[in-house]
Amino acid sequence: MSDQPAPHYLAPGVTRSAKIVVAGAFGVGKTTFVGSVSEVAPLRMEEPITEASVGVDDLRGLPHKTTTTVAMDFGRIHLLGDRLALYLFGTPGQTRFRPLWEGLTEGALGALVLADNRDLDGCHEVLGLLEEQRTPYAVAINVFPDAPRYPLDEIREALALDPDTPLTECDARDRRSCVYALITLIEFVTSRHAPVSLVEPRT
């Protein structure tokens, strides 16, 4: 028997936990986002993109993408001075995985939808699904280096977002901006959707 203390899978001060879905279109940066913020080694369920994807997955603008998420990405982060544990579930981007999207959003406190200025139309189906399921969400524009920049009020209009839906920018490779996007979502959900509460973690 080792004298070393048992590892803490959650920070000792955690009093609440929540499930958060990271959603968005194919190639928008969900896997990178989860990997940037997760405090544990992220679980990635990816497969190589093969010729079977030709004519099925739209690879325009993604010449260097070689893998795709086929089930989900999973990570965990602590916020609020380690009192809140967020379990992050990244969805696959292709619309053929819609049944999986529906399953992953079940029981979620909210969703962070990543969007790409080069293809804003790509996130409309995700937004529609979240609204159908009454899952509260915020939108974060993943700022790709070669993507055009638009004022956020123009993007809000293009996506037909409600005035109170949070809209921000982030760089999926940058942990700080990703954490800010998550905090924006949490503040929105907890202040405007009182029936949806944070849960006490099991001991």
TrEMBL record:
Coiled coil: none annotated. The keyword Hydrolase applies. Keywords: GTP-binding, Hydrolase, Nucleotide-binding. The keyword GTP-binding applies. Belongs to the GPN-loop GTPase family. This is ATP/GTP-binding protein. It comes from Streptomyces pyxinicus.
